[in-house]
Specification:
Length: 395
C-alpha cells in the first residue's frame, strides 16, 4: 500500500509533458543489455562496461544518459525516457532488455516499477548514494524503500555507500569498489610528439588548456612570474575560443612576447616564450609534452571545459582553480587522491607552476593523478560477473 501511494503521488508530481519521444533506432536482434548513466561522470564507467560486454560477450548494449555522449562502436546511445508510466512503457516495449544496470544511485521509480512488474532483472553498479530522479520536498511514503527492494543486487563503491543503501531499503548489497572507466587517454601523432619532444627536451614546459578570454591576462602574468625563476620556461597556450587566436597573438607580440603559432606551422625555437596551440584538436599531443597543466576556466572563467582525467591519464600534473564546471566528480576524485593542485588566485597560479616544474614534485602529483584515473578494473570484473550471472539465469 505504501509503495502504491508513494508511486501515485510521485507520478502525479512528475506528469508527462505530452511531448513525443525521440525517434528510436531499430532494436538489434537477440540479447540486449541496458546500461544507464545519470550524468557524464557515470557515463565513463558505463562506457567501459559496455565495451567489455560488446568485445567479450558479443552482446549489444543500449546506453542511456541525459548528457550527450559520443557514439561508440557496438553501443547504442540514447536519451533515457521520462520517468512517467507512458514514456517508460513505450521505452521498455521497444527495447525489451534482458537486464538493466543503473549506476551511482539514481532511482526512476515509475520506470523501475514497470521493470519489476515485467520481471526485468535490475542491478545498481558503482552505487554511491540512493536518490530519486527528481529531488522534491514532496512526501512519497515508502517509495525509495520499495523501489530499491526491486533490485537483485546493489554493488556499492565502499562500506559507507553500502550502509546508505541498506538503510534506504536495498535488500542485497555488496561492496565491490569503484568501477574502471573508459580510458581518458587521447591519441596523438607519435612522430609529431617525438619531434617536438626533442626540440623542447631541455626546456621547462607548462600547458594552459582551453583558456577563456577572462583568464588570458592571468595566465600570461603567471608565465611572466615563472620566467623570473626559470628563464627558459615555455608556455603552451590553448585558447578556448580559437577565433580569438589572431587577436591574442597580436596582443602578445605587442607586449614584447616571442610567440610561435601552431596554425601557421611555426615551431617553438630557443627564443619562443609562448607557443600558441591554436590548431585545434591536438590535446593528446600537448598533454604528453607538458609535465604541468593548468585547467583553463577554473580560476576566472565559467568552469573547466575539459575533462581533467584526460591530462591525468597522460601523466601531466594538474593545477585547477575553484570552478570545476561540469567535471565536479572528476575534480573531487582527483582531490581525494591528492592528485590535483588547487589554487584560488593568479599569484597562486604562478607559485604552483613554478613549484611543479621541479621534476620530482610534478612526477609525484602526476603519478597520483594517473593512479586515480586508471584504477577500478577489479570492481568492473565483479559487475560483469553479476551481469553474466543474471543473463545465465542466476537468481
Amino acid at each position: 500500500m505504501a509503495h502504491s501511494l508513494g508511486l501515485k503521488l510521485y507520478t502525479l508530481a512528475n506528469r508527462s509533458n505530452g511531448a513525443e519521444p525521440a525517434e528510436r533506432p531499430s532494436r538489434p536482434p537477440g540479447r540486449l543489455v541496458w546500461l544507464h548513466a545519470p550524468g557524464p561522470d557515470a557515463a565513463r564507467t558505463m562506457l567501459e562496461l559496455a565495451r567489455r560486454l560488446v568485445d567479450e560477450d558479443a552482446v549489444p548494449v543500449l546506453l542511456t544518459c541525459p548528457a550527450p555522449i559520443a557514439p561508440h562502436e557496438g553501443v547504442l546511445v540514447q536519451p533515457p525516457p521520462a520517468d512517467h508510466p507512458a514514456e517508460a512503457r513505450a521505452f521498455l516495449d521497444h527495447w525489451r532488455p534482458e537486464v538493466a544496470v543503473f549506476s551511482e544511485g539514481e532511482l526512476r521509480p515509475a520506470l523501475m516499477a514497470l521493470a519489476e512488474d515485467r520481471a526485468l532483472p535490475m542491478l545498481m553498479a558503482d552505487a554511491r548514494v540512493p536518490r530519486l530522479l527528481r529531488r522534491r520536498d514532496d512526501w512519497y511514503p515508502g517509495l525509495m524503500r520499495s523501489t530499491l527492494a526491486g533490485f537483485q543486487r546493489v554493488l556499492a563503491v565502499d562500506e559507507e555507500a553500502a550502509r546508505s543503501f541498506r538503510k534506504a531499503g536495498a535488500l542485497a548489497v555488496a561492496v565491490t569498489g569503484r568501477m574502471e572507466e573508459e580510458s581518458a587517454a587521447l591519441p596523438c601523432s607519435e612522430p609529431e610528439r617525438a619531434a617536438l619532444a626533442r626540440r623542447l627536451s631541455t626546456r621547462p614546459v607548462w600547458l594552459a588548456v582551453d583558456v577563456p578570454e577572462a583568464e588570458e591576462a592571468a595566465v600570461i602574468a603567471a608565465h611572466r612570474s615563472v620566467l623570473l625563476l626559470l628563464h627558459r620556461a615555455l608556455l603552451i597556450l590553448v585558447p578556448k575560443d580559437l577565433a580569438r587566436a589572431d587577436a591574442l597573438a597580436a596582443a602578445l607580440v605587442a607586449e614584447g612576447w616571442s610567440v610561435a603559432r601552431r596554425s601557421a606551422d611555426e615551431e617553438p625555437d630557443g627564443e619562443t616564450e609562448v607557443f600558441l596551440a591554436d590548431g585545434g584538436g591536438e590535446y593528446g599531443l600537448w598533454y604528453r609534452l607538458a609535465p604541468v597543466t593548468f585547467l583553463g576556466g577554473t580560476l576566472l572563467g565559467e568552469g573547466c571545459s575539459r575533462d581533467p582525467l584526460e591530462a591525468a591519464a597522460l601523466g601531466s600534473a594538474l593545477i585547477s582553480g575553484p570552478k570545476p564546471g561540469g567535471h565536479a566528480g572528476a575534480h573531487q576524485r582527483l582531490a581525494r587522491a591528492r592528485a590535483i593542485r588547487g589554487i584560488g588566485s593568479v599569484g597562486e597560479l604562478s607559485d604552483a607552476v613554478g613549484d611543479l616544474l621541479a621534476p620530482d614534485r610534478a612526477a609525484r602529483l602526476a603519478q597520483a593523478a594517473w593512479a586515480a584515473s586508471s584504477d577500478g578494473a577489479e570492481a568492473t570484473e565483479k559487475v560483469l560477473a553479476e551481469i553474466r550471472r543474471v543473463m545465465d539465469g542466476g537468481g
